[in-house]
Amino acid sequence: MEKRILTGDRPTGPLHLGHYVGSLQNRVRLQHDYDTYILIADIQALTDNFEHPEKLEANVFEVALDYLAVGLDPERVKIVVQSMVPELSELTTYFMNLVTVATLERNPTVKDEIKQRNFKRGVPVGFWSYPISQAADITIFKAELVPVGEDQLPMIEQAREIVRRFNSLYARVLVEPRAMLGQMARLPGTDGGAKMSKSLGNCIYLGDPPETVRKRVMSMFTDPTRIHPTDPGHVEGNPVFTYHDVFNPDKAEVDDLKERYRKGTVGDVEVKRKLFSALDGFLSPIRERRAEFAAQPARVREIIMDGTRKGRAVAQSTMDEVRAAMKLNYKFG
Ligand code: ATP
Ligand code: MG
Fold it and tell me: Which end of the chain is more exposed for a tag (fewer CB within 10 A), N or C?
C-alpha cells in the first residue's frame, strides 16, 4: 500500500506565507510520493468560531483555492471536507476514552491558544479537546506522515499516544503518525510576533494583491533598537531578514544586505523594497493560478466533492476495522 500523508488547515481565512513554509511546501514536494489527503478542518474551526458558522463555507472555498494555487495537483491529492466525513466524529468519541483530562490540560499549544483567544464565557469543551478530534483526523486515514508547523507537534504526540493505547487495548489497526516540519518550523508575523497567524492579523496572504503585500512589507517590524539608518542593526531575530532568508532566491543580495545592515550602511526602506520584490516574484505565479481557479468555481467544487468522496471511502473502511477491533460490529438476528 502506498504510504499516506494527512494534514490540513482550519477554514478560518485564506492561507498565508506561514502555512506555505510550515506545511504547504512539503505537501507539494511530496504529493507524488505519498497518497495525500488534505483535510479542510471546518469542525475544528467551529470550536472557536461556533458563533459565526456562516464564515465557514466561503473559507472552505478560499482554502481549496490556495491549495490549487500553490500547485497541489487535484488529480493526485484528495481535498477532504471534515464535516462531510461523519466517521471522524464517531472515531473522536471512541478516542475520548483513551485520553485523560490531565493530559489535555498539559497540551502547551492549546494552553497558549486559550490565552490568546480570551474566551469570554469560559473555554468550550470542543476547543479544549480538539487534539482528540485531530488524532481521529490523522489516524482514520492511517497516515504515516503529517507535514505541519511547530505548534502542531503536541497534537502529533497526542495522536501517537492514542494509537499506541488503541492498538494495545483492542487490535493493531491504527498507524502511528510522524510529524514533518517545514523549511521554517514557525514563520514570525509581520509584527515581529512569534507566529504568523490568521487569528493575530499579522499575515501576508498567498492571494494578497501586490499593493497589499507592499504595504504589509513596508510597515513590517524590524530592529526596534535601530533609530537611524546609519545605526548598526540586528539581523538575527529581525523578521525582515527571516523572510529574506526564506523567500529571496538571490542569496548574494541577502548576504550583502545583511552585511550593510550590521554596519549601518543600508536603510530599512531598501531592505524592505528588495523583500517586496522577492515576495512578489514568489507570489505572482501563485496569484495567477489562484485567479484561474477562482474563475471556475464549479470545477473547484467538483474537486472538493471528489476528494471528499474518496476520503470518506478510506474513513469508512478504517471504521469497519475499528468497530471490529472494539467488538462493536454486532451481528443481531
Ligand atoms: P488560526 O489562527 O485560525 O489557528 P493558523 O494561521 O494558526 O490559523 P491553522 O489552520 O491553525 O492556521 O494551521 C494550519 C497549518 O499551518 C498547521 O500545520 C500549522 O502548524 C501551520 N502554520 C500555521 N501558521 C504557521 C506559521 N506561522 N509558521 C509555520 N507553520 C504554520
Ligand atoms: Mg492554528
Answer: C
